[in-house]
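INFO batch 0412 | record 1 of 1 | parsing
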Amino acid sequence: MKDVHAVIELKITPQRDCGFGRIAEKVSKFEQVEACFLMSGGYDLLVFVRGESLQDVAQFVANDISTIDGVVSTATHFMLQTYKARGVAESLGGDERMAVS
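INFO prediction complete | emitting tokens
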């Protein structure tokens, strides 16, 4: 079975004297976390995670990420299909056009 990959948007409350750093460090220490970025815009941290199943990732977010002091909200987006990764396009196999009915 292939691993499940997800992207999680985190809104967090900056902490006195360290801003977003302390929470970002806590999030980054989990083995499920592949990458963590401070972002501009509508949320603060963008976190790439890997799990064994959709339920595994959902439990990780509910039990580990969302319970960290300072995490205000999360939004989880599951990666369903890869078309290009690390600069390399994935083979779609066969005719790439969609059927018209």
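INFO post-check: The helical segments are 21-28, 54-65.
INFO record closed
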